[in-house]
Structures are given as C-alpha cells and as structure tokens.
Amino acid sequence: MVKLQRFAESNALVHEFGKYILEKQDSALAGNSHAVFNIAISGGSMNKVLYEGLVNDKDTFPHIKWPQWRIFFCDERLVPFEDPLSNYGQFKKTVLDPLVHKGDQLNLGPTVYTINQSLIGGGETANKKIAEEYASLLPASFDLVLLGCGDDGHTCSLFPGEEFNYLVEEMTRKVVWCYNSPKPPSNRITITLPVIADAKNVCFLARGSSKKDIMHDVLIIKNSELPSVLVNEMIGTRVTWFLDDAAGALIPQDC
Ligand SMILES: O=C1O[C@H](COP(=O)(O)O)[C@@H](O)[C@H](O)[C@H]1O
Fold first, then answer.
1. Does residue 23 form part of some domain?
2. pLDDT digits (tens, 9 = 90+) for 6-37
3. CB 185 within 8 A of CB 77
4. Where do the Glucosamine/galactosamine-6-phosphate isomerase domain residues begin and end (predicted)?
5. Which end of the chain is more exposed for a tag (fewer CB within 10 A), N or C?
6. pLDDT of 103 above 90
7. Domain CATH code at residue 180
8. Residue 244 is inside which H or E element, if any?
C-alpha cells in the first residue's frame, strides 16, 4: 500500500516535500559527517519544486548538508547540457546555480553525476556506452529516488506500450538506452525498475490538472500496463505520492 500526501495549497506541498527529503537525508547520514546521501532525481516539473522546497525554503535550507549529497538522474535526455531539454542543464539552472550563489556567498554544493557529454551524437554504440558508463557510477542502492509521472503514466524514461516493453522488462542492467521516446528527444537513458526496487525510499510528485486522469488510472484503476503502477506494485510500502488537489481531483478523499 503506497502512502498518499495530498495538499490543497501549493506552498504547503512544496514545504512538506522539502521536509520529506530532509528526513530521508537525516536517516541516511545519521549524524555521520563522512556518510553520503545518495539521491536520484527526475527532470521536468520536479526542478522547480526542488528549488522551492530545498533552496528557497528558510526552514529546510539550513539543515541540508549539500556537500554530503550525491545526486544522480533517474533519466537523462541525450542532448548537450546547454540544450533546454537536458535534465542536468535544467537542474543546474534551476537549483544548482541559485544554491551555489545563495546569500552573497559561495556555498559548497553537492556532487552531481552527469552522463558523459562527450559521447552525445555518436550514434547507437555511443548511446549504449553512455548508459553503460552511467550504470557504473550508480551506488549499490539509493537512499531516495524522486520520480515524476507523465500524463501517460511514464516515469523516468520508462514508457507504457508494447514498443517500450524492452525498457520495463530489463531486469539485469541498471541503466538502459531508450531509443524511441514518444516525448522528445527520442534518445534518452533511464534507470531500470530493479534500481527503483532496490531504493530505500521512493517518492512521486504530481501536480496540476493535466495529471488528474492519469492519477485516477494509477491510484484507483491501478492499470498495471503503466510503469508508475509497476513501481507501486513492486515496493508499495516504500512509496509515497505527493499530490496537489488538481492532480488528485478524481481520487476520493478517504483513499
Ligand atoms: O520526460 C520526462 O518526464 C517525466 C515527467 O515529467 P513532468 O514534467 O510531467 O513531471 C520526468 O519525471 C522525467 O524525468 C522526464 O525526463
């Protein structure tokens, strides 16, 4: 059974989301200044909430131990970092740059693991190599995986539909090349379901009315053709969903 956290108010959602991440940081570090917090983050709408909930939140910000964070990407689009579609590029612009320069001083930031940009544009062999190299960087397991859920029920770059079965059926490799993403760009890499299943905590974030139908399919119908549902089914007790009222409009309040 997954945990549902619902919010009528956007500020409250953002604040509680930041507090949830802080809690997971604290249990991973347990006061040990040599320990690290391994977190995998998603792209898209997640970045703004990470900025608001972690960098711009005056209660949370002072408690984040950024130098002990090891940040990885759940998926990455195979474009140069300066391309607006790059998940790392957007994260840098939205979260890292403001963090590093916050408060008129230079703050020490987290260690961020990106794909090998020099291989982008190198075709099939290079794309497979990007996935392979990225897999070799991943920790044995994540303390926290932060997931989005697309309007079609995809999460990471694991898409629903027969032509994408090779992605959700991958049970050996930790990272795979997605060569036919229905959402641009078509070339991406993504962590696989076993990596998510090994995580200590998994948290989905869904906001806005464009998500209301898919939230109904995921949380009420539980359509197991949807990758987001597969995550819930695999490790439900470790999964928390953060929803705003617009995304949860079709979910009964007592759910
Ligand atoms: O393409 C992607 O989409 C999903 C969902 O994004 P959202 O903007 O609808 O929240 C995202 O989680 C993933 O990282 C990204 O590459």
1. yes
2. 999 999 999 999 999 999 999 999 989 999 99
3. yes
4. 10-233
5. N
6. no
7. 3.40.50.1360
8. strand 239-244
Any domain includes 251? no
Domain span at 164: 3-202+226-235
Measured CA angle at 133 (ends 154, 165), to 5 deg: 30
Q: What is the CA(212)–ligand 1 centre distance, in A?
A: 16
Domain count, the chain: 1
Arithmetic mean of pLDDT, 117-139: 98
pTM: 0.98
What is the ipTM for the molecules in this complex? 0.99
CA of 148 to the centre of ligand 1 (A): 5
Task: State in Å: Cα 157 to ligand 1 middle.
Answer: 8
Any domain includes 196: yes
d(CA 116, CA 130): 6
Question: Does 104 have pLDDT greater than 80?
Answer: no
Around ligand 1, the residues with Cβ closer than 6 Å are 42-46, 74-75, 87, 148, 150, 157, 183
Rg (CA), the chain: 17
40-to-76, 80, 139, 158, 175 alpha-carbon distances in Å: 11, 20, 10, 15, 13
